[in-house]
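Example 3.
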Amino acid sequence: MLRTSLASRDCLTSHKAEDVRNIYFASTTHPFKDRQNAGVIGTALNVEQNLSATDIGGSLKAGTSALIAGLNASKDGAPSLVAAADKRMARVASSGELNYGDGAAALLCGTENVIARLVGHHSVSMDFVDHFRGDESDFDYSWEERWIRDEGYSKIVPPAIKAALAACKLKGSDITHFIMPSLMPAVPKQMAKMVGIGEGAVRDLLGATLGDTGAAHALVMLVDALEGAKAGDKIMVVAFGQGVDTLVFEVTAEKDKLAKRKGLSGWMARRKEEKNYMKFLAFNEMLPIEKGMRAEFDKKTALSVLWRKRDMIYGLVGGKCKVCGTVQFPRTQVCVNPNCHAIDSQDPYAMAGLECAVMSFTADSLVYSPDPPGYYGMITFPEGGRFMADFTDSDKEQVRVGAKMRMTFRIRDNDTMRGGFKRYFWKAAPV
Amino acid sequence: MARGIKDKVAILGMGCSKFGERWDSGAEELMLEAYKECLKDAGIDQNQLQAAWFSTAIDEVHVGKSGIPLSMTLRLPNIPVTHVENMCASGTEAFRGACYAVASGAADFALALGVEKLKDTGYGGLPGGRGGPLQALWNANGTAPGNFAQLATAYMTAHGVSGEDLKKAIGHVSWKSHQNGAKNPKAHLQKAVEMDTILNAPMIASPLGLFDCCGVSDGAAAAIVTTPEIAKSLGKHDIVSVKALQLSVSNGSESGHNSWDGSYFHTTRIASKKAYEEAGIKSARDEVSMFEVHDCFSVTELVTMEDLHISQPGKGWRDVLDGFYDADGKIPCQIDGGLKCFGHPIGASGLRMLYEMYLQIQGKAGPRQLKNPRIGMTHNLGGSPRENIASVAIVGRYE
């Protein structure tokens, strides 16, 4: 969810979130089985009214299915946000542990200023079970790779691609970028060859840098391709999972006018590497680690409070006093400015996108943190507003008084006593 | 300003339990230990008590809520008992209630008793997570040392003090309190400690190390107050009277408005100024004989001495290193060992500070007795630097 929020906010750079009419959120690891996950994204983007929110899952092609749904929904001009994310668990020493990555991508579909025009799409659906994850397991169970390659990919994908090309009135050689996630790196090349797509068009699977991000990966690779694409390029996106989704886009001249954003390369550049395998296991709850009694504090969430304060907690919306202009967080009924104290004077003021600075901080070895010491401190916003915030992605070298930070939507707590209610809030991370 | 209560209330008796990891005692035993000493010192009968104030801060983990635990434990004669809680400043709050009852004429004899039994939690430090359901959704996941460590960060930034200088100064604060605590048989920690040990101790919340943090202790303290006239009529000599009681509580400007730089206690400045006015003190640096301040962390004490208007802003660390607050300095601070060594049973601490002032003014402080102190000042802080309750009391000889 946090990756989805980051990707969605990045995606909405230069767009107004409140214009979004549909959110489709694809994953095979939605944090909640019964709670609208896409709706959490909506609230975190401060958009609720006139919003239709839909979760799509159940297959590794959920990301492309969501994209098709988003494109169809936006045909009449209603901007639709398509987000996909996965955080798949893998057993220790499994191939999944080596190959999987956690990640997210978000795309905004609409009819104005489109940077990639949909040329056409085509889908087939068939219950080819190359792997599965039953509702009693956290882990995938896979069949033999050679069978998947020979009976699955080779027999199902080429006809699907050919049908898509025919529907788009294109030849394989017209495709400039061929995107097809697979845990078998040779397969996309093989599929491309079988349908006449040039080997040079086959996109890197990002296995060396990111890993396979599951249901999100086709969209992650699409964002990667779009970053370097030129007007006129034709991008084919293929996702395989109990069938095939194929989409073809043509990049437009609008692409070069798109406001600068982080994109895949930006997020990869600001990565924080963790090379300690034991930490990797601990963070993923793969080790029964001693957390101490301080980890026992009850994390029960008052859902009624969360509902009343959802714009504050999920949207990081503070207040701006109409009388004195002071920006403050949280928004309260009485202005915090000691020289004002006006009552009922504050308009909502969104702070999630604002840069802030560290006023004071500590590295706390007493507090429970999955990654001790816990870094936190007072952050101040230049226009006003401050609060004591947990820091994330921080280390000793980066945190100092005056350091520039930005707010990022994160899991704050996980209420494991009640089946895993994730508490989300905003943490400060170095810019 | 209101007329205040200067010299309207006298302390008739006080008591204090041994502080520490009292595995042998629950809250009830600690309460009685302090109360027995207090009642004996006051020299009255329990049936003469007309009202009581009872302070605890973390009632979830020991006695529970209400005034009932005090009334039950002491078998009080069905008098009014009010339970007060103002975080770490709760002890002074109980004292304030009892004093106001006497000053108003509502009671001739009133009891204030504070207790905290913390060593039944199963872990070190204070229990966390008591801010209510909204706080739990957004407030940083922090601890007391982590919040007060930021006072050090901000102080260094505001005054251009180097990390090394500050570490030495706050190290001296703790060194001095350990020297004093070694002379106090009721203190939790009674060992003097070398500066090297303090400076090289493990980090708790940077830049605060182990010796920058006070002990978490079990303990209780109590006072019985009356009017100076009644005290005299009971044959009391060397009467200690209350000169001032002031409280200032944050309203959110520090935590929510960019006018505060994090380097000082806004409330302490206000409460102490009002207290000096109430007590008629013109120059505190010259008139106050001794301090017991809220040294929950070494840096808290250092900054507090500036906010009590004793050291100049940004210069407190120099006074500390000059020995100004040592036992043989100009104004001794934490002569009983302070929170650092006497210990910090939250609900009892404000009363424990007053207990030392009371003993010192009467010349009953044993091996740590100062020479002829006249005016003692306590400072009891609840909360964190950004949101707190500053409670100040001034007591002295009744003349």
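Residues 292-301+352-431 of chain A form a domain with the OB fold (Dihydrolipoamide Acetyltransferase, E2P) fold (CATH 2.40.50). Chain A has three domains: 2-269, 292-301+352-431, 314-351.
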